[in-house]
Every structure is written in structure tokens, then in C-alpha cells.
Amino acid sequence: MFERDAMPSHRFLPLCIAAAALLVACDSGASETVDDRSGVTYTCCSAEDVDRPYRPGQTLLVHWTAESPAAPVTDSPQVELTARLTGPYATVDELKTAIGERGDDAGKVTFEAQPLRPTGTPGEQPVSSIPISSDARPGFYNLTTAENQAGRTASGGSIIRVIADASPQS
Questions:
Q1: Is residue 143 part of a domain?
Q2: Which of 1, 61, 121, 166 is deepest in the core (most CB within 10 A)?
Q3: Cα(109)–Cα(102) distance, rounded to whole angstroms?
Q4: In what order do the strands lie in the sheet with 109-112?
Q5: Per the domain annotation, does 29 fall within a domain?
Q6: H/E element holding 44?
Q7: Are 143 and 60 in contact (CB under 8 A)?
Q8: Which of these, 62, 69, 80, lies nearest to 158 by C-alpha position?
Q9: d(C-alpha 19, C-alpha 115), whole Å
Q10: pTM for the complete prediction?
């Protein structure tokens, strides 16, 4: 009885053959290659862009960093870079709460840079310019940047502080 259980049953032979064929097919080396290169990608921002206060009437410059893929790109990238500043918020916590609630910008203003469409040439360093209105109120502003490429969007954010204009003393 023990010897009979140790021997393979002929009922499982077709199942074993099918499993072996599946393993061979999976490991045959033939696979479909999907070209998922999205070309040059862009990230934002340098610390000098965001780690300082701004005043009404100044221009916030957003320096984009281009990152080239390992393989050469033959097509021109279809990339659009956008940047906008929304606020003011009284505190950083208020700004973060508004971001979490998505779209609660009631009573807020938005300053936007013109969209950029970089060419993807090596060494290119795109810069978005966001003019801050001369009547901008002091507070914390949400800087939102986005790279739109091949139907995909990658976005990020930073907090920018706008301080009151230095008033002339008499």
C-alpha cells in the first residue's frame, strides 16, 4: 500500500505535461518588449526658487531640471511644463488642509506662468516665470508644478511665502 502511494498516478500525467509546457513557454526567452521610454523628463525646483520669501510685484522663477533617458530619444518630446501659485493662506496648516480638500480655493488668487514646451535638446534649462501681482496679500501660497507628457501628468508642490512690502518709514 505504501509503495503504491509513492508511485505517480497516470491521472496526473496530463496535468504534469501541461504544467511543464507552460513553464517552458514562460521561460522560452520570447517576450514582447514594450517601449516605455518617455524621453526627457523634467523636475522642479531648485532650493533657491522656493526657500526664500517673495514680495508683491516680484517674479517667482521656477527652474526646471531636465533628466535625459539612458537611451537616445529619436522623437521630439511632447512636453508641457506648467506652474501656478495659489493663495494666500494665513498658515501653512490652512494651506495643507485646503490641498487635502482639493479645490477649496474660495477667496484665493492664482498667479500663473505661461506654459512651456521645451524641445528636449541636451543642456536645455527651462524657466517658468510667475509674476506676483503688486497687490498680492501676504501669506502662504501653494506653488503647483506639473509636467504633462504622453498623456501622463507628474505634479508637485511647494510652499511659497509672500511677505508684505516694506513700508516707507517717516
A1: yes
A2: 61
A3: 15
A4: 109-112, 79-89, 139-149, 152-162
A5: no
A6: strand 41-44
A7: yes
A8: 62
A9: 55
A10: 0.71
Calculate the alpha carbon distances from 9 to 5, 23, 120 in Å.
8, 21, 64
Q: Could you read off the pLDDT of 45-81 as tens digits, one per residue?
A: 888 999 999 999 999 999 998 887 765 555 666 899 9
In a domain, residue 12? The reply is no
Tell me how many domains the chain contains: 1
Cα–Cα distance between 108 and 89 in angstroms, integer? 8
121 burial via Cβ count (<10 Å: 0-12, 13-18, 19+): exposed
- Domain residues for the domain of 158 are 41-162
- Across the range 141-167, mean pLDDT stands at 90
Q: Are 144 and 45 in contact (CB under 8 A)?
A: no
Sign of CA dihedral 148, 151, 154, 159: positive
Residues with Cβ within 8 Å of 92's Cβ and at least 6 positions away in sequence, in order, are 140, 159
Given the C-alpha cell 508684505, which residue does it identify?
164
How does the average pLDDT of the chain come out, rounded? 76
Q: What is the CATH number of the domain that holds 90?
A: 2.60.40.10
